[in-house]
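Extended Data, panel c. Modelled sequence:
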Amino acid sequence: MPPVRDHIPVVVQGSGRRGRRAGLAGTLWAAAELTVTAGVVVLLLVVHQVWWTNRQALASARDEVHALERSWAEEPPRRPAPAPDPSPSGGGTAPTPDDGPEPRVDPGSGAGAGAGPGSGGSSSAGAPGRAGEPPARERSYAILRIPRLGLVVPVARGIDKRAVLDKGYAGHYPGTAAPGARGNFALAGHRNTHGEPFRYINRLRAGDELIVDVRGERYTYVVGKVLAQTTERDTGVIAPVPHSVVGPDQGYGEPGSYITLTTCTPEYTSRYRLVVWGTLRS
């Protein structure tokens, strides 16, 4: 009978360590893939927000300007009776710091858009005739031209984000004066994304022209003052006599026919408001 040999198990050194290393490498690889995927998604979102929305809004605003110009060429201007004076002495409803709960001066390019004076009002407007006629809803009714910036943008009533500002339009603050009328014709616009029509209004200087076309009429305002920074609740900037309630030395002190442009500042934030004021050229 052959001798019985003892069975000696063979131990492979390091196999457990290699397995742990392989598991760690797989985990790191999966984490890297997730990180890259998340980065691509974020990049696509940024491209959509910063580039694609601008492209869409610019095209929409350009088409709206052309449509307005065509409609004005095809229809004769209407001549309604002049509207009442929007100033407090004339019984108007322009918002002031004393008109109930304090509203926000909202250009619609940051958080809380649409919460400004008259929020919840009509989102856009139809075409009026002369200054003071209340425009109908659901269409733009005027064109703002700023030669210094090469800007041509439709104007609609209201500052609702989705219905007006996100289309690349300038929004006419409800309760403020009509173009060419006595009081303050106050507008808001995005500074970044969605057409960003007011992106470069910080470049405007005293003497620059702000031209507002309405069917059959043209009103030319001249930039007088620029308020580089104020709070979103500085409602005085869109009052009938525009002024800052934050900086009492900023603004105007006499009744007249004014225009106000408001937007967010600094760029890509909604922390403060940038304001440009002008007066109607007689």
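The chain has one domain: 48-76+98-280. This feature is highlighted in the accompanying rendering.
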